[in-house]
Amino acid sequence: MAELKYMSGFGNEFTSEDPRCPGALPEGQNNPQVCSYGLYAEQLSGSAFTCPRSTNKRSWLYRILPSVHHKPFAPVFQENLTHNWDEVDPEPNQLRWLPFHIPHAVDKKMDFVEGLHTICGAGEPKSRNGIAVHIYICNTSMIDKSFYNSDGDFLIVPQQGKLLIITEFGKMLVEPNEICVIQQGMHFSVEVFGETRGYVLEVFGAHFELPDLGPIGANGLANPRDFLVPVAWYEDRQVPGGFTVISKFQGKLFAAEQDSSPFNVVAWHGNYMPYKYNLENFMVINAVAFDHADPSIFTVLTAKSTRPGVAIADFVIFPPRWGVANRTFRPPYYHRNCMSEFMGLIKGHYEAKEEGFLPGGASLHSIMTPHGPDADCFEKASKAELRPERVAENTMSFMFESSLSMAVTKWGLKTCNRLDKSYYKCWEPLKRHFNPNWKPSGK
Ligand code: FE2
Question: What confidence tens digit (pLDDT) does each residue in 236-295 have?
């Protein structure tokens, strides 16, 4: 695979030309009467035209044919992609899933779009407010097929197998322990290299941004320069058998045929584009004296709601780090939260659940559903000598945290057959340690 090139920065105004066509970007204007090389100019808007400058997002694409050059869309079958949150009754219990099965290609070929399985979510794409969490499992590349999401943004978290993502803006290789964001409306196609699995956080109606840093200062957490944006790349490829463009529109999938590749953008400029980020670059900040910072200290990206400080969804990670807090129960605390917490594990062992929470699996702790370390973790951590120690070495777990009360789909609760029905048992051995006659030591 030829080496891929990227530009670095988050939300910057970028310019990019495929080097085969120097001068493809117009100078001094966006929409000249005639574009260089006989290209068409097309704007992709990711925000209302009138958004304040700080949140205004759009890019100009200079392409061989405009995106409108396609046959009409018609509905296509979708098996497990949904935003119907009433398929099954609400489920307030702590939920945990074993690793999701990836079909073998010899049994059932499945590409990235066919392999999208919605597990939970809330809200609604028509009113532009909500989220969906999908598991993707696939074994086949998308051939002469692209996808775009009219409903919102995809934050993709690969867990097994790398993804070569071809977008209108260029190509990105995204491997486990990296994430990428493909924003609303951007055409992309996914090539895979075997059995492949991961997680998708879809957000309707907001874009991801870096969290504010407040007293942390100007640096830290995910630094803007570590976000990578593809450089322009085009193919001038006629597809006589038809190239299929899939649109996700109001939660449903539609397909349209066209006679050439949509990856025909020779140059682009703007601040609305796909990007990727390597989680190893996250600059971890945590407690260095006693007690805990809340997990929000590990926020990589946030999709804000209109309520100050309240996210539609945060993407939070629990990376390798030092644990040094004195006189402190170091694992995550027991708690109940006014937010929904969906967790996944990319690799390793999550510190609060050494057993049962496995790479490629998941858990959901819904709004006000109590949760915390299992009994084994509690007993060990209560007695541990508090030396500085590495936490989460060779591990990367993450959380999609949402202010919305997510419902679980029928696939998630029933037909995936991966629900761990014994999850609650990890807390059953919690012992009573209460002693009303207890005296502080030394008295
Ligand atoms: Fe939690």
Answer: 999 988 999 999 999 999 999 999 999 999 999 999 999 999 999 999 999 999 999 999
The residue assigned the tokens 């059932």 is 108
Neighbouring C-beta atoms of residue 3, cutoff 10 Å: 5
Distance 365 CA to ligand 1 centre (A): 7
Given 228, 245, 279, the domain boundary residue is 279
- Measuring CA to CA, which residue among 211, 251, 176 is closest to residue 401? 211
Instruction: Indicate whether 19 belongs to any domain.
Output: no
Number of domains in the chain: 2
* Domain assignment present for 149: yes
Burial class (CB in 10 A: 0-12, 13-18, 19+), 53: exposed
Distance CA 39, CA 293 (A): 52
Residues labelled as active-site residues: 292, 335, 341, 365, 371
Identify the pLDDT of residue 350.
Answer: 80
Closest-CA residue to 301 (of 271, 328, 281): 281
Instruction: Say if CB 4 and CB 171 are below 8 A apart.
Output: yes
Query: What amino acid is encoded at 52 in this protein?
Result: P
User: What is the pLDDT confidence band of residue 170, given thresholds at 50, 70 and 90?
Assistant: very high
**Is 57 inside any structural domain?**
no
Range of the domain at 208: 71-262+272-279
- The closest of 135, 126, 87, 98 to 205, measured between CA atoms, is 126
Domain-embedded: residue 145 = yes
CA of 419 to the centre of ligand 1 (A): 19
Kindly state whether residues 288 and 255 are assigned to the same domain: no
Residues whose beta carbons lie less than 5 angstroms from ion ligand 1: 341
Q: Taking CA 415 as the corner, what is the angle to CA 424 and CA 153, rounded to the nearest 5 degrees?
A: 90
Contact 300, 319 (CB under 8 A): no
